[in-house]
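pipeline: protein-struct stage 2 | run 1193 | Allograft inflammatory factor 1
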Amino acid sequence: MDSLQGGKAYGFLKSQQEDKLSSINEAFLSDPQYAEEEDLASKLEMFKKKYMEFDLNDKGEIDIMGLKRMLEKLGLAKTHLELKKMMSEVVGGTSKDTISYNDFLDMMLGKRNAILKLILMFEGMGKEQEQKDAGPPSRKTFSDLP
């Protein structure tokens, strides 16, 4: 196994990571605390994909650079201080420099409204909206101007 090529090693690492996150999803699916959650399995699958996309250190955690990249991709660049504040909201005020998948799921499924949760939910709603608005835009008139 020690002679893996870069791409194969990366793929192996990602599949190991996905297995680990899937087992965490299984635990959330059997957790009575989330039994009332609508479409829990599909939500967990979506959260897993989103989480893996921004786990840049490939350690199964999102660090500050991963969070920065996530928000930049959404068109919401933040300062280092804002990122640290968002991170502490997600992990419950502790001074950790990474967001674990459990922290991420607790934030997305929990009652606490972290800024990051609102941003990700808003982004999800925006995507649904984009799909509905297929076709040419409506014709604008002078009365439409602000």
